[in-house]
Amino acid sequence: MVRNPHNRPTSSPLSGYTVIDLSAGIAAAYCTKLLADGGGDIIAVEPPEGNALRGWSASGARIAEGEDGALFSFLACTQHSVVVDIDIDSDVAFLHDLLAGADAVVWSRGGVGEHRGFAPAEIRRDHPHLVVTAITPFGLDGPWCDRAATEFTVQAWSGGIVGLGRGAADRAPVFVGGQIGEWFAGAYAAAAAMTARFRQIDSGTGELVDLSMLETQILSLTYYPVGFFEMLGRPFRTERKLSVPGVATAKDGMVALGCGTAQQWFDLCAMVGHAEWIDEDSALSITEQANLHAHQINAWMAEHTVDEIRDVATAFRIPNGPVINGANAAEADHHRARGSFVTNPRDGFTQPGMPYRMTPDVLRAPEPAPRLGEHTEHHRGLAPTPVPRNERGTAKHLPFRGMRVLDMTTFWAGPSCTHFLAMLGAEVIHLESTARPDGTRLIAGVPVSEEQWWEKSPIFAGLNADKKSLTLDFRTERGRELLRELIGTCDVIVENYTPRVLENIGLDYAAVRELRPDAIMVRMPGFGLDGPWRDNPAFAYVIEDTAGLTWLTGYPDQNPIEPYSIGDPNAGIHALNALLLALEHRRRTGEGVLVEAPMVEAALNVTAEQVIEYSAYGALLNRDGNRGPTAAPQNLYRGNDIDEFGRADSWVAIAVSTDEQWAALREVLDNPSWARDPELTTAAGRHRAHDAIDQHLTAWCADRSCEDIVHLLWDAGIPVAKVLQPHRQADLPQLAHRGFFEHLTHPVNPTARHSTIAARFSGGPTRFHHTPAPLLGEHNHELLTELGLGGEDITELEADGVIGSTPAR
């Protein structure tokens, strides 16, 4: 049996866990990197010409023959490389030997696993002990399973391109740059693979994990729009508007400020010297009010330096941050103080450190990436010992059943982490108070004059189904006493307050360990538990600004645009990965773990390519509208449809990523003379001629409906998509086939469809949702009774305001 092939100490959570990598592309590579960081032994099986990532550079840097691109050197740290020629029978037998001695497989199209009996279902048939995690654009089955796609076209199908009104109304909407969907899918795949491992440990058998990138992008780039539409009868947002203040040009660089609350807007008015703008009774939204005064706000910014603006904004508690890019990220004072960047152990460039930290320190430091085939002979020389196929026991239908989680989180990042656990069986107790309910209860725009208005937030409903609600005001002594008692009953505590909140009430990790020695405590501060920015407000857009996500989004002739989406769910999925590693460490050792999972360091990891390209090649990656380095042409083109809001604003996304796809597009266009230019037969030539190609495709699309364009191009094997309004996600036949949305009935709200998990597990469940999001304090009596309180005690707590079911006025 091929166990611990790297011959390392067994202190890491996944030591001895062998993963065969049969993949290509960033998503799978990032998945295996996260597993390697946790101690997994990754054997990358490559074709004789090597993984295509070895020759990749987003900036087009020349990579010498026999050398590797810097991104590959980052993603493949600590792994082994084995070369297999799938056309040679003895190599096929060798690959079967590797699979027989492994625990898991990560698979995607374009890798070795696409050939000769190594599709996911075939691997499971021949090696049923394996957990096989397959990463594909739409899933392994369903009407779209074989359709051509790129990360860009999947963003369009997800609704993520227009989901949060990104960009100005007078231009095409813009996608989130940096292949972000690939990175998020990789993080999600790692969490799904480790989840399946829990059942594998119980039973000795594996399963197929079928991950859809479309579904991961819905969860990361849109904000529960289907539930919003079905519960409130209106879309979340229908118009594109530039955020103000948003990203602004200061005297010496770019700075970003955000106003997520009325108080922050009032404070901004005072900060820029215009208190007369404050109108507490205004019928306009904060964004609408800010846009009225955009010229004066931007003029004030231009007169001050970044540091001056940030100092005064911080004093006003207005969320703010510098706009980070590949050239300045590693020099930011907070990132330097935290040691957020490290040196690549083989090639010496700068790369992000781990996206999370643990106490005890059980993560494995990166080791040099392998050269092509470096370990082939080593593994050929090992006698394979197949993993026994007999079942050791019965796997749990819900892998986290029996686990109790105290969910001390709010808004999007923290609840998205614990929601995954709740959907797969954990008892998740969502802690709120009547004085400070979860912030997502308050942001749906439901008038406070409506009865039980706080129960009508579709965003809260989407993030907190299958959880219980306990209200507890831990500003009171009695509230703190009860909180400590509750912690003693919990396996896991997750919180995403600013660091000082729990410290002020004496509930740091040391205190938690006294209450529950084997507790796992996951802390999700925006910027970490230390460093100069540790107490700064950390809304998603600020995280995006300070990690590079904003920099690559938007048009090159304008300031970048905050995605306003990925910062939170990306933090949630990385915290989940860290939590799963901590659970495995506890399973092996009995020890509790402190997990520190800062939002910004999760974001720095999925924007790694910017810093790596600048450090390795001196190349600053820049935003380019809807174009990108992986395809040419790649852009949005307007069809002749009138959209559901009566506007000529319907778009398709087209991305030609291979020469074969270009030839197919030329045929669809009926071989016009301009398309026969020999220069266009290569990707480099098409990139150079992108402006001219765009002109022709714009004219061609303008005469056709978006549906006709998609039909013509997709049938020809060309990646294409309608730019979907996000509240129409549930209409997509692929999602209907996979059952991604499930109906939930709620005691206050209309029955609505809610998104689930972006993977299907062959071991089940077939349904993820069982109870709707809880009413405020719905489970107070149940949970407090379990702590030994009687009816009179609970009544007294209600009278004293320690608990309750109505927000305090």
TrEMBL record:
Residues 367-394 are annotated as: Disordered. InterPro entries: CoA-transferase_III_domain, CoA-Trfase_fam_III, CoA-Trfase_III_dom3_sf, CoA-Trfase_III_dom_1_sf. Coiled coil: none annotated. GO terms for molecular function: transferase activity. It comes from the Bacteria. SUPFAM superfamilies: CoA-transferase family III (CaiB/BaiF). Keywords: Transferase. This is CoA transferase. It comes from Nocardia callitridis. The lineage of its organism: Bacteria, Bacillati, Actinomycetota, Actinomycetes, Mycobacteriales.
